Amino acid sequence: MGSLKIVIPILVVITIIVIIFNLTQNETVEEQIEELESSSEIQNMLETIRKDKLDNDSSDNPYMATEREWIQSGPFQIDRSEYVLGEKVFVNIVNLNKNDKGTMIFTKIINSTHVFEYKKISFDGSKPQQNFYLSFNLVEQRGICTVDQLIGDWELRFVGVDGKFNSLEFKIKNQIIPGAERQFEPVC
């Protein structure tokens, strides 16, 4: 009977502790859920996405991603022949000969005699192949101030390989991915 007097209060104390622990855990989880649901940043982002989708769907020329076509010159491939502003060019390098070394130059064709060099990227077949994405952006420091300087015909040239690979041609169209309009507001 004496040990029963000790066991009952211990069980009561343990039960109270378990109940208090559960209640505090439930309150903490509920507070976290409320914080997430009421987070204005997340709500604003979701609302922006909804608005961009509605704007795109109701526009005269809605954006629809095109399927990849994989235009190729030797071991070099780009995923499309046409891009819209905000899309990235995916460059894939497959089975580059270990002796092939040079530079890829992304150029905007100005006219039959002039180009603008946008980006140079080295390649070296003796090193592991590196596939990559390249985005085209307005860059005030480089004098690329408006979308007019990005829209048009482009070429990916391969220098340092004695004409072994033909250039890859592509176009950037006068269309912007919905939601990326602010990225293409004039910067100069």
Structure notes:
This protein is α+β, with helices and mostly antiparallel strands. The chain folds into 2 domains: 2-58; 71-184, Immunoglobulin-like. 30% of the residues lie in helices and 30% in strands. It has 2 helices and 9 strands, in the order H-H-E-E-E-E-E-E-E-E-E. It has helices at residues 2-38, 40-58, and strands at residues 71-73, 76-78, 82-85, 88-93, 101-109, 115-124, 132-135, 152-159, 168-176. The strands form 2 sheets. It has a 5-stranded mixed sheet, with no helix packed on it. Strands 1-2-4-7 form a 4-stranded antiparallel sheet, with no helix packed on it. A hairpin with a 2-residue loop joins strand 1 (71-73) and strand 2. The chain is elongated, with a radius of gyration of 29 Å. It starts with a helix and ends in a 12-residue tail after the last strand. The model has no long low-confidence stretch (mean pLDDT 87).
Number of helices, counting only DSSP H or I runs of 4 residues or more: 2
Straight-line N-to-C gap: 90 Å
Helix-strand string: HHEEEEEEEEE
* Total number of domains: 2
CATH topology of the largest domain: Immunoglobulin-like
Nutshell version of this structure?
With 188 residues, the protein is of the alpha+beta class.
